[in-house]
Sequence to fold (396 residues):
Amino acid sequence: MRIFISGPSGVGKSTIISEVLKRNPDIVLSVSYTTRKPRPEEMHGREYYFISPQEFEEMVSKGVFLEWAQVHDHTYGTSLDWVSRYEKEGKHILFDIDVQGVRQARERGFTGSYVFIIPPSIDELAKRLKHRGTENEKSFSLRLKNAREELRCWKMYDYIVVNGVIGQAVKDVQSIIDATRCSRTEMAGRIPWLQEIG
Amino acid sequence: MRIFISGPSGVGKSTIISEVLKRNPDIVLSVSYTTRKPRPEEMHGREYYFISPQEFEEMVSKGVFLEWAQVHDHTYGTSLDWVSRYEKEGKHILFDIDVQGVRQARERGFTGSYVFIIPPSIDELAKRLKHRGTENEKSFSLRLKNAREELRCWKMYDYIVVNGVIGQAVKDVQSIIDATRCSRTEMAGRIPWLQEIG
Fold:
């Protein structure tokens, strides 16, 4: 099972993802490759695989990425090999992915449940972005503009979850995961006699 | 929102449906038309609209049925008018529908979540059918044969729910309903600013 989760900056996606991972020990979070430098608390292979721009370019040219994207000054990509490796072990995968990545995954016909987290309103998102202490006025406007652009891509997704009250958003994502477990494709893999009968 | 639920005879579909309706007061059960005679406890317009074979034929020829099917000696049909009337009131509809009905609804491109309830195994279904006191040996074999035929249609459905432990099956259907509430189509109707932005 594959669950793709996107949402504009400030929407609270990371909190939702970490809550969902706690509740579903059979789901692993996809680990991407990136050219950005690790932060002190980050570990190679846990948050990301930290590689050089040269290595990244080489991987792009070899076509090993399911999707990759430039975000601010750095590139991020999801390796198809990584996905196959975990799926062979029977693991379910949750992808924390941006709209550019979803577009590419969709274009490749990569199946799964695509979930878009949205704020209750644009005003509310603006408020949340403003309250992030580190933002100066310029990066605030830029982030809000980007968020608007991203929100315009809602039609690429199967599901839309409003993050108003955090508990409800987590519940909604959990329902989507539980429903996806019951999807025909998932069940066909789990119930051998269905294949035999039909 | 439309939820279609099918399952072979003996699988426990009615129990699941009545549990689900109790938990979701905003969902109404579709009331079909039938040519079979009402049982003592049944009421016209509640369990079914009881009509004559002549009236039924007339409705078929006028094309008012979303789907209709012959089951044993009687015909049953879902009226498109009935569906539109409730949907205009903003109601969600649950359809208790057989595989023939689902085939027709799919052919018409009728959108919704299609759920198939299956037993844990064919043997288990046979056991359940056998334990129904009223069945004689002949109707038992016929019902088992029909159930097998119906189970072969699992690929027409979006979701498959195993009714092993009843509580779990109800939970699964509930997750499918909650996920469907978050589906792009449903959310697009509920969140005006999404339409405006994209």
About this structure: Residues 2-197 of chain B form a domain with the Rossmann fold fold (CATH 3.40.50.300).
